[in-house]
Structure formats: structure tokens, C-alpha cells
Amino acid sequence: QVQLVESGGGLVQAGGSLRLSCAASGRTFSDCVMGWFRQGPGKEREFVAAIARTGGRTVYADLVKGRFTISRDNAKNTVYLQMNSLKPEDTAVYYCAADRRVGVSITPYEYAYWGQGTQVTVSS
């Protein structure tokens, strides 16, 4: 079992930055691929970024490529999402997800564990 707790969301003006954190419980964090997803108002949950177990590979959605950076610290059981140049359309609840799989995935249903989400609101 892996429990995930996100933090770092909030209200920011367009062009600003936020860093989300996701703290994982348990001793198996380094065995997990980690992902960030988001769900905006009236929208389906969508992939944002994912990182391999060792951090050696990262994948990004086209909408955030070049603006967002995913990273992880296995010693701290934490994954981060640095978000720069934020836009109003980035407004969403951001979820952290984990799965004990070999390769990164951009598909929500391939992740077994989810956090409760953290709200990010970008004002224009």
C-alpha cells in the first residue's frame, strides 16, 4: 500500500510559478513510477507528467512541455512538479499517482495509488 499526500497548490497570477510536492508513505517509493495528473472544471482527468523509478526518464504532456518539470527524491519519498509560466488554462486539481510498474505511463487507469489532490488556480 502506498499513501500519497499532495501539497503546494494555491492561487497564482498568470506567468507565475508554483511547486507541488507529493509525499509518499511506505518503503516502496523507489519501486514506483510516479505521475502527475490534473482535472479542470468540467473536464476529464488528464496526464501532466511522469517519472521513472530512478528518475532517469521523464515524460510530459505537450501542453506543459518546457514549462513544467517533474523530479523525485527517493531518499525523501517525495515527487515534485515545478510549474513555471503558468496560464489560466492550467487551473485544475492536481493529483499525484503511483504504481509499481516498470515503465512510465501516461494513462490514469494504470496507476494504482492516488493522492487526494491539490487545487491550483491561475488568475489572468
Structural overview:
The chain has strands at residues 4-7, 10-13, 18-24, 33-39, 46-51, 58-60, 68-73, 78-83, 92-99, 113-114, 118-123. The protein has 124 residues and is mainly β. Strands 2, 4, 5, 6, 9, 10 and 11 form a seven-stranded mixed sheet that branches. A four-stranded antiparallel sheet has the order 1-3-8-7, with no helix packed on it. The protein starts with a strand and ends with a strand. The mean pLDDT is 95.
Strand percentage lies at over 45%
Order of helices and strands: EEEEEEEEEEE
Quaternary state, please?
Answer: single chain
Give helix % range.
under 10%
Low-confidence stretches: none
What is the CA-based Rg, rounded?
Answer: 13 Å
Mean pLDDT value: 95
Number of helices: 0
Could you give the distance between the termini?
40 Å
Number of strands: 11
Please state the structural category.
mainly beta
Task: Characterize the biggest β-sheet.
Answer: 7 strands, mixed
Q: How would you describe the shape?
A: globular
